[in-house]
Amino acid sequence: MAVSYMAEPYSHDSILSSFHPIVKAWFESRFKEFAPPQRFSILNIRNRINTLISSPTGSGKTLSAFLSILNELVDLSEKGALEDKVYAVYISPLKALANDIKRNLTDPLSEMEAQAKRKLGIRLAIRTGDTTASEKAAMLKHPPHILITTPESFAILLSTIKFREKLLSTQWVVIDEIHALASSKRGSHLSLSLERLQSQTYFTRIGLSATVAPLEEVARFLVGYDVEKDDWRDCKIVDVNYAKQLDLKVLSPVENMMKATYAELNEATYRIIDQLVQSHKTTLIFTNTRSATERVVHHLKDRFPQNYTRIEEIETKEEKEMEAAYEGVDQAFVKDGAKTAYEKAASAGKTTMRSLIGAHHGSLSKEHRLNVEEMLKRGELRAVVSSTSLELGIDIGYIDLVILLGSPKSVARALQRIGRSGHQLHEKAVGRIIVLDRDDLVECSVLLKTALERKIDRISIPTNCADVLAQQILGMALEEAPKHIDDIRSIVRGSYTFHALEPGKLLEIVKYLSGEYANLEERHVYAKIWYEPDTGMIGKKGKLTRVIYMTNIGTIPDETNIKVKIQDHLVGYIAEPFLEKLRRGDVFVLGGNTYEFQFTRGMTAYVKASVNRPPTVPSWYSEMLPLSYDLALEIQRFRRLLEEQFRYNTQKEDILEFINSYLYVDEYGANSVYEYFSEQYRYAEIPHDKKILIEHFSDGQKKRVIFHTLYGRRVNDVLSRAVAFAISKMHKKDVEMGISDNGFYLAFDKSIQATKAFGAIKSEDLPKVMRYALDKTEVLRRRFRHCAARALMILRNYKGNRKSVGKQQMSSRLLMSAVQRISPDFPILEEARREVLEDLMDITHAREVLEQIENGQVQVKEAFTDIPSPFAFNLMVMGYSDIMKMEDKLEFLRRMHNMVLAKIEMKERHKN
Question: Rounded to an integer, what distance in angstroms lies between the CA atom of residue 351 and that of residue 362?
């Protein structure tokens, strides 16, 4: 069978007849019928068939996974055969989800006990980093029959000698939000943990996923490889994403984005948001950055206080007696205007103002986020604004509209966000995307089309992560008896993410862990296992090894803020992910001033004041999500189709008809798309999936070269660094660089041979070029620290003391020099390079682009312009967004736009 799709659902009667009478009575008292995921999967799970369930939020996935499990446990309870051991493990990427699941299972169990008129004795428990010592002791004495945990806590339990015994009879493992785990190192770590458990007992694997592709790969990630049979384990895929109807639209706030002033655009945008919120019960608004989340909440409350603030009287005895005195508040509000009345009421001290809108993002406290979630569930909020923190399936109650402000950058993410609305399966998911510039308009319109056509962008699953492997090999060595290296290799090969690992790579990790590299002891990296090459046996070394492992486990790196200094003068702080993006010479804004990055020492970035140069890296750069490669290609394909229309001199009315038939846009949007492409075509050329345009122009001070490579920021990060490296070798000087999803630019004091440099980079040489280009970069240094901490070369916790991120970075710098002396291909250093090039960047698709150029599938053309072409506008003003007010930026764009229109008019007059 291997991996295959479920073609037909099971019948209602066949599923119901498989239930124990108690479970059957409970189900019939609660539901009229089974939801589509349940009809396809419940009997699979009962029959011990590995199953991946992909369906929208609120479609009944969780019950699909647990009904068969609860049924078996109820049956065992009724027979008096329920033992003190773990039968099922539920693994969630979020602690909040774990709490939700416990609550969502506790209620059905209580109701079943009411049906049975007795206690069933089925125990549930949560085991995470927050679990207290007394709770852990209670679990050991009376283990939960259903254990709810996270990937990190699950790995700890596998190496906890006493509790591990309770896991050895596990019959089911449920992995929630598997799509979110599979694409990260947490997923690699989890897949090895599952194989460690599989080596001890057979269990059924159940994966729960939102919309994701390719499902076949996610299924293989879920079930792993059967080394004995030399084939992937069997898995049935339940794909019911089609079951939920979509009501999606792209909204353009103004008729002409290039002519509207900032005030007009802002006013129209917030008016649309407010109208949408007021015409729905509860709205979830997604932005792409945390700062934008706060800004939207502030503006809505400020502009429409009567809609997002409610005056409530303080319910104390004294205040109630004076209630009559404040009956006029509502009338005062109508007469005096919103803010005045609200201020009067609040200042009177007899009322409180309750907000009907909330913000939810990762920088806010856990207490604040939980409070917002609970208020949402109780229906006390009209709207919540979030960045990414509410994308996953935390239970937030009923949402009937999702608004996306700007592009979510991938089809899967758009569907996950919009899928939060219409929480019941039969309800429509209603989504509105509001766009604020022409690039966003085109991107979101194509995104909507691909979403409605169910073309989902493919996720990338990291493979052969050496740091994760080192951590898990140590975990295996901590198990009671020593292990043979072949047994470890067999366990590792069972994991999807390590199935193709070369035997020599595993041996290198074992050598490192066993202390073969004596030089590392100078850097306080000591042996943690023993390894006998003659016998092939491996075991733990040292009394503290178990404690070190338990207190340093996991894959999520420690991060902190970086001090920014001019010599010894402290300027301010920047986030570490932002520092990663900086190259020597890059200019950024901090506290309203511009600074040029020089170098770092530990957790301090040294800069010099930059007066004459605009920023090259905007402040939001590290926080913005990158455009997916698959969606980028769809946008480029649309560009090509429109270019054909213009090339054949098609009339405007016919082109507008084509735009309306191809995309899902409103009237304003269709006209804006037409004008945008018409201007680009008449001024320069339209770049697309078969043509890269390299545009040269001078801004008076510098020669600039714009590469119109719409492949997403991850691909452009590779291409730009490779070209900049080639140019630096040719001219013996670094170039200024800026990157976006739509392309990148290079700037130099004199003419540069950018096209020649681009042509000199061959696809087969790209990995080697990028290896040199990354050498001594900030991003490689930081990522090496992350990898060294995962591989337990740097200990974040030791003997009860926590090492600060600054000290970790200092240790990492010295350690990096040490491993380079041992070998430039030392496995953990090599993993840091792989993480940068494959996970952070996208060298695979960058190489694919170069191959297409080499085989003639993609042409490279040049254009020489006096003013940047319309497609280059956003890339050119990207850095200015930190030093210009938004109204000045829009005015600057408008002036450029008018100059381009004048050039087009002159050119066409010349032609005639």
Answer: 31
Tokens matching residue 644: 């054909």
Residue 688 structure tokens: 């697309």
**Tokens representing 750?**
């004199």
Looking at residue 424, what is its pLDDT?
A: 63
Q: To which residue do tokens 């169910």 refer?
A: 454
Contacts of 553 (CB under 8 A, 6+ apart): 152, 155, 156, 471, 475
Tell me if 885 sits within 8 A of 849, measured CB to CB: no
SS3 194: helix
- pTM score of the predicted model: 0.87
CB proximity list for 217: less than 8 A, separation 6 or greater: 458, 459, 461, 496
> SS3 for 610?
coil
Decide: 743 and 694 in contact? Cβ < 8 Å: no
**Are the beta carbons of 179 and 218 closer than 8 angstroms?**
yes
Rounded to whole angstroms, the Cα distance separating 59 from 43 reads 17
Rounded to 5°, the CA angle 899-900-901 comes to 90
Tell me which H or E stretch contains 595.
Answer: strand 593-601
Angle at which helix 667-683 crosses helix 438-452, to 10 degrees, equals 120
DSSP one-letter string for 854-902? HTTSSEEEEEE-SS--GGGHHHHHTGGGGTS-HHHHHHHHHHHHHHHHH
Q: How confident is the chain (912 residues) per 10-residue block, as mean pLDDT?
A: 89 94 93 91 95 84 90 94 94 77 85 90 88 88 93 92 90 94 95 96 93 92 94 94 80 87 89 94 89 87 86 53 37 37 50 78 76 85 86 75 92 88 74 92 94 89 96 92 94 96 94 89 88 94 89 85 86 82 81 80 84 66 79 97 94 94 86 94 95 89 90 95 89 83 89 87 95 89 93 88 82 89 93 96 97 96 92 80 63 86 85 68
CA 133/CA 882 separation, integer angstroms:
49
- Cβ atoms of 460 and 183 within 8 Å: the answer is yes
Read off the tokens for 495: 């994991």
What is residue 557's predicted lDDT score, i.e. its pLDDT? 83
Strand partners, 433: 250, 404
**Strands, DSSP E only, in 619-757?**
691-698, 703-708, 736-740, 743-748
Beta bridge partners of 298: none
C-beta separation of 387 from 293 below 8 A: yes
DSSP codes, 744-797: EEEEESS---HHHHHHH--GGGHHHHHHHHHTT-HHHHHHHHHHHHHTTSS-SE
Q: What is the largest CA-CA distance in the chain?
A: 94
* DSSP letters spanning 368-382: HHHHHHHHHHTT--S
Q: Helix or strand or coil: residue 121? A: coil
Question: Are the beta carbons of 346 and 353 closer than 8 angstroms?
Answer: yes
Strands 357-360 and 529-532: unpaired
